[in-house]
Specification:
By secondary structure, the chain is of the alpha/beta class. The protein has eleven helices and 14 strands. Helix content is about 30%, strand content about 25%. Strands 6-7-8-3-9-10 form a six-stranded mixed β-sheet, with helices on both faces. It has a four-stranded antiparallel β-sheet with strand order 2-1-4-5, with helices on one face.
Length: about 350
């Protein structure tokens, strides 16, 4: 359901434009000069380890926390000067459920719907639709204290989609979800963008960013360490990898010499499987290699080229894997805010 919002992007301004955002807690900077440009009608992903500054950045952009320094505009409007006007244009789903545990799932959704301006009948219809869509219809009248963490997460996400705002902030939205529900949510996010919304998504799941995001920013220690499309980020950490398997294991040594001579690289080989791996600067080099192998009578059983993964990008940029939760015991991005929202 799309709410009757005005079109904030009719003049083509970016959905989000942030310059030099800074936020400190207790003298420690959780966000240290973040710049972001998010174009309207896209999905923008933010990756980063725990404590990188992702959630604090979201809270400042969503008018929930005042920046110490820098500026941020949503559809051209300043988040500090016009917070109340901007709140009509954005939706926010955080990492932790904001539902009322004393109510049932149906009661939560109806109350949220009414608060968002839906009439009594429309609120009930929309609640039933969302309960069914998120697989909660069978538990709609159960008290939330009986819900699992994943069920509460689904309800929180359902509440954020009662109406469709022009800009939606999703802060690690699939945490705690099973693979099936996670895939369903991905489809919902794509549908939101197809029907006119812009989405800013933070996640620690690299495949999620790879699948969804048009552009990705990697934030580490409160700063944007890298930004680009998934392919651009992958290309930034090195070349692709060629894996070649010869049909006759006795040809491995000769094939390896040909690969090294043709591509001018060093290779690794596993003679027992007849497999050779080598860095590959560009796919154009493959044609010359295959011709050279054929001229020497070496038959190729399999050949593949693998691009670097986002896992490798993340490790190269931050120095630790995406799932590392021990890198920052004191997490400034989880500090309770000591100042009122904007």
């Amino acid at each position: 359901m799309r709410h009757a919002f005005p079109d904030p992007a009719a003049d083509g301004v970016p959905a989000i434009e942030a310059r030099g955002l800074v936020k400190a807690f207790g003298g420690r900077r959780a966000v240290d000069g973040v710049d972001l440009l998010v174009r309207t009608g896209t999905i923008f992903g933010i990756l980063g380890p725990n404590g990188a500054g992702k959630t604090t950045t979201i809270r400042m952009l969503a008018t929930l926390l005042k920046p110490d320094e820098g500026t941020a505009r949503i559809f051209g409007r300043d988040v500090v000067k016009e917070p109340h006007r901007l709140r009509r244009l954005i939706g926010v789903t955080g990492q932790y459920a904001s539902v009322d545990e004393t109510l049932t799932a149906r009661e939560n959704l109806i109350i949220f719907s009414r608060l968002l301006g839906l009439g009594r009948g429309e609120a009930r219809r929309r609640s039933e639709e969302l309960l069914d869509r998120f697989g909660l219809a069978g538990a709609a009248d159960r008290p939330l204290k009986q819900f699992s963490g994943g069920m509460r997460r689904r309800l929180d996400l359902a509440a954020s989609l009662i109406v469709q705002p022009p800009l939606l902030f999703l802060d690690e939205p699939t945490t705690g979800l099973d693979p099936r529900t996670r895939a369903q949510l991905w489809d919902m996010i794509r549908e939101l963008v197809r029907t006119g919304s812009t989405v800013l998504l933070t996640t620690q799941y690299l495949d999620e960013a790879d699948q969804l995001a048009d552009r990705i920013a990697v934030i580490d220690h409160g700063r944007v360490a890298a930004e680009g499309t998934a392919d651009e980020l992958k290309a930034s950490v090195g070349t692709s990898t060629l894996q070649l398997m010869v049909r006759n294991g006795r040809d491995v040594a000769e094939a390896r010499r040909i690969v090294e001579r043709t591509l001018r690289v060093r290779t690794a080989a596993m003679p027992e499987s007849g497999t050779i791996t080598a860095p590959l600067a560009g796919a154009d080099d493959l044609a010359g290699l295959l011709i050279a192998l054929r001229e020497q009578g070496i038959a190729v059983a399999e050949i593949s080229v693998r691009k670097p993964t986002l896992d490798e990008v993340f490790l190269a940029i931050t120095g630790r894997p995406a799932g590392d939760r021990t890198s920052n015991e004191h997490d400034p991005d989880r500090e309770p805010e000591k100042e009122a929202a904007v």
